[in-house]
Amino acid sequence: MSENQSPFAKKLTKREYEAEVAKTRDERMKWFADAKFGMFVHYGPYAVAGMHEWYLALSASSNEQYEREVTQKFHPKKGCAYEWAKLASEAGCKYMVMVTRHHDGYSMWDSDCNPYNVVKYGHDYDVVAEFVDACRKYNMRIGLYHSIIDWHYPDCGESARDFDARVRFIKYHRDMLTELLTRYGKIDMLWYDMCYPFTGENLDFVATNSLVRTLQPDIIINPRSGLEEDIDTPEEHLNPNGKQKYWEACMTFNGLSWGYVDSEEVAGYSYTPQRIIKMMAETADRNGNLLLNIGPAPDGSVPADAVKPLRTVGEWLKVNGAAIYGASKPLDMWVPNGRTTLKKNNMLYVIQLITPVLGYLPVNGVGAPVKKVRCLTDGKEYQFTQEGTKLTILDVAHGHVDKIAGVTVFEITCGEPFGKFQRAVPPALAATLREEV
User: Of the candidates 411, 409, 368, which has an alpha carbon nearest to the alpha carbon of residue 386?
Assistant: First the structure.
């Protein structure tokens, strides 16, 4: 489709824009809905400070102090993006999102409109270009993160009270986005962040995102520019914020920082393979994705605390990925210390975190007659009983069959598409149980 043929090439109202976006959303979102697991990469000069990606603000540093103490010591090594993508592939991720410019204003590509960037600041190395190439090498969908606020650009702060500054700031964004979306081939996702204190309207993101969609017709955009867009992006929690059909939970690796922190000091806070699998199961159970972050070291190396857990998750997914990839949400089901996902309307997966002691596993709310139950780890079939929507898997020993991460998955094949998922609730408890647990 040429730019002139794009419905976004003409001036649209907010309502018209959002209606056009909605027309193609389901088609554009197919790969995302199946992917379920992605890697976020926060990498920039803030890695040098080794404390937090907001170091410039949290330390109350001036831009001059930050450049002297942090930016001038930032020396990314060539090849680091291939290390990230290789680990993402080993972990079973299907897409990656890289921070191309965080709130400190430092661009990780050779920008002509923002001279405060990795190339013009002394490095013959366009990190974004390498990231895009690495994603393609390892068959990852490509996402680019773009901060809206910019603490280094004077017109950012002035834009809140000066109209001419706001016009310049809007042009600054459009020029950067045009660079990112025309230099590197097809980009699958644009991940905005931090519109505050502005709104989608007063920074004219209807026109900006119309430009984005004209340049990249198949792109997915998150809602952090202040418009509804394609996906919801809850941060540091696993529940969708709003009514959007598609969503991803973006999570740090340690609950402390998106940027690099010392791997030894943070080890006790970092996620284990089991915690990552639990998060993945919980988002997949709700028809969402998990976007799990790494914060590379100052030279771009993968943080040591992330390597082994992510590789273990990848090994687990090689065996049990059918329970995660392409999953959609089953309704109203209970499994003690387990999570459930549904595929193809008649394949149910029970991701069991803790194994039963009593010798059987109850699965409450199976809305179709069951034909077969088997364990994905060893292929063993299990006997079962079914009374209405209450399924009982028999002879389930205490102790995990899965030895990779200690999370065992049961695959349940039903003889017909699932109907309503209705839990079997004892009458005495019906009045006291909440609608959702």
Answer: 368
pLDDT per position as a tens digit, 148-182: 999 999 998 888 889 999 999 999 999 999 999 99
Class of domain 3-323: alpha beta
CA–CA distance, 41 with 57 (Å, rounded to integer): 20
Task: Say how many C-beta atoms besides its own lie within 10 A of residue 22's C-beta.
Answer: 11
The tens digit of pLDDT for each residue in 318-332 reads 999 999 999 887 667
Give tens-digit pLDDT for 335-369.
999 999 988 778 999 999 999 999 999 999 888 89
**CB burial of residue 122 (10 Å; 0-12, 13-18, 19+):** exposed
- The span from the CA of 432 to the CA of 182, in Å, is 57
Of the listed ranges 8-12, 29-33, 132-136, the one predicted with least confidence: 8-12
Name, in order, each residue with C-beta under 8 angstroms of 304's C-beta and a sequence gap of 6 or more: 263
Q: How many CA atoms lie within 13 A of 376 on its CB side?
A: 26
CB 151 within 8 A of CB 116: no
Instruction: From residue 122, give the alpha-carbon distance in Å to each of 73, 130, 343.
Output: 11, 17, 50
**b/e per residue, 280-296, with b = 16+ CB within 10 A?**
bbbbbbbbbbbbbbbbb
DSSP, res 249: E
List the 248-251 sheet strands across, edge first: 220-221, 189-193, 141-147, 95-99, 37-41, 289-294, 248-251
Superfamily (CATH H level) for 338-430: Golgi alpha-mannosidase II (2.60.40.1180)
Are the CB atoms for 86 and 139 separated by under 8 Å? no
Question: What amino acid is encoded at 269 in this protein?
Answer: Y
Nearest to 404 by CA among 337, 324, 313: 313
Domains 3-323 and 338-430 share a fold: no
CA distances from 227 to 62, 129, 202, 207, 214 (A): 32, 28, 11, 11, 17
pTM greater than 0.85: yes
Q: In the chain, where are the structural domains located?
A: 3-323, 338-430
Residues 6 or more apart from 182 whose CB is under 8 A from it? 215
